[in-house]
Design a protein that fits this description.
This protein is mostly helical. The chain is built from 3 helices and 2 strands. Strands 1-2 form a two-stranded antiparallel ribbon. A hairpin with a 2-residue loop joins strand 1 and strand 2. It is elongated.
Length: about 100
């Protein structure tokens, strides 16, 4: 497999870290999503249960999945940016806008 390159064209020294982190986060999200699917398959009537502000479990869980995905994306971006900066010898201030 060819080595990945950063935007500057230099080899990506943080590639293995980013891959491990991405796979770990995917597995975490997949497990949470599997819980959603399992509830719908095993006991779908449970999704009708009112949870918060009159919203049922299906809506709350579904919105939680969306928000969770966004949070994971932000965390992934920040951690990978810091690791790339450290691997390339730049400071954390150079990465932050």
């Amino acid at each position: 497999m060819p080595q990945q390159h950063s935007a500057s064209g230099a080899p990506d020294r943080a590639e293995s870290y980013k891959t491990r982190l991405g796979v770990w986060m995917f597995c975490l999200y997949a497990a949470i999503y599997a819980g959603f699917v399992a509830i719908n398959v095993i006991k779908p009537v449970l999704m009708e249960t009112k949870i918060v502000l009159g919203l049922n479990l299906a809506v709350v869980y579904g919105m939680g999945l969306i928000v969770g995905a966004l949070v994971l994306a932000v965390v992934y971006n920040r951690r990978c940016s810091r690791r790339e900066a450290a691997a390339n010898g730049s400071t954390d201030r150079e990465v932050q806008p």
